[in-house]
Specification:
The protein is mostly helical. The chain contains 11 helices and no strands. Helix 6 crosses helix 10. It is globular and about 60 Å long. The C terminus is likely disordered.
Length: about 250
């Protein structure tokens, strides 16, 4: 399953079928493969919490997992430093702009990832920390899912569903102002807002593994897949999938 989802991540970014058929490419890129990244977040949460007693946190296991993720993030950043420096230097001849790009890079190191695809590690670490904190505070799952859902909604409204966001909150509204300010912190579409909800789902599955039957899970996945397909079709048809720079996502 992990191999299939890793292959889905590749398809998600390369639009492999765009020259063959736009409808097929849309179905593969914007529907089927969209489950890949959440799958890895959920698996990470499940693998981490499944060996812990229900409702109890093994802090030594949490520290070990975070330490491993941080080392991976740190050393891969070091490996990519020459490329990062090359991109910063070649982005502008203006010294002020170069300094600004360096500051942005340092900010990204703690908010979105030092390089494009490292956001997953940073968001996963934040998701683990946040889930651990909420469980330690003895929040119930309704409260936890509501909180991480709010974080995730910032990611959705400020990027993927920006067209829907503009429909709900005009540019002169208070909601528009708040989400734009929060998006500067969460650096959508990646960053802190993406991972926690899926890590928490992994935690819930690990501590409620006998709650649902396999048949019920299969029907739920089928209905959820149909819902995603219909949702994507409607958003594309109405032109509501946009980014903050007003670029339509197709």
């Amino acid at each position: 399953m992990k191999f299939i989802m890793a292959y889905a991540v590749v398809l998600l970014h390369c639009h492999a079928f765009i020259d063959y058929n736009e409808l097929v490419d849309f179905f593969v890129t914007d529907v089927l493969t969209r489950i890949a990244v959440p799958f890895f977040f959920i698996c990470s949460g499940w693998l981490l919490f499944r060996k812990m007693p229900v409702g109890e946190i093994d802090f030594s296991r949490i520290r070990k997992s975070l330490n491993r993720l941080f080392k991976m993030y740190f050393w891969w950043t070091i490996i990519y430093i020459p490329l990062i420096c090359y991109e910063i230097i070649n982005s502008s001849c203006d010294c002020k702009q170069i300094v600004k790009n360096i500051i942005i890079f340092l900010r990204n190191c703690v908010t979105v990832g030092s390089y494009y695809h490292f956001w997953f590690l940073l968001s996963l670490m934040f998701g683990i920390l946040l889930t651990t904190w909420m469980v330690k505070k003895q929040w119930n799952y309704k409260r936890m899912f509501f909180f991480v859902g709010l974080l995730y909604s910032i990611t959705l409204f400020a990027h993927s569903y920006y067209g829907v966001f503009l429909w709900l909150f005009p540019q002169d509204s208070f909601g528009f102002y708040i989400v734009h300010k929060l998006s500067k912190i969460f650096v959508t579409p990646r960053g802190f807002g993406m991972g926690p909800i899926f890590v928490l789902i992994g935690n819930w599955i690990a501590w409620h593994q006998h709650r649902w039957s396999l048949m019920k899970i299969k029907w739920f996945c089928l209905l959820f897949g149909i819902f995603i397909l219909l949702k994507q079709c409607l958003l594309i048809t109405w032109g509501l999938i946009r980014t903050m720079d007003n670029r339509i996502l197709c």
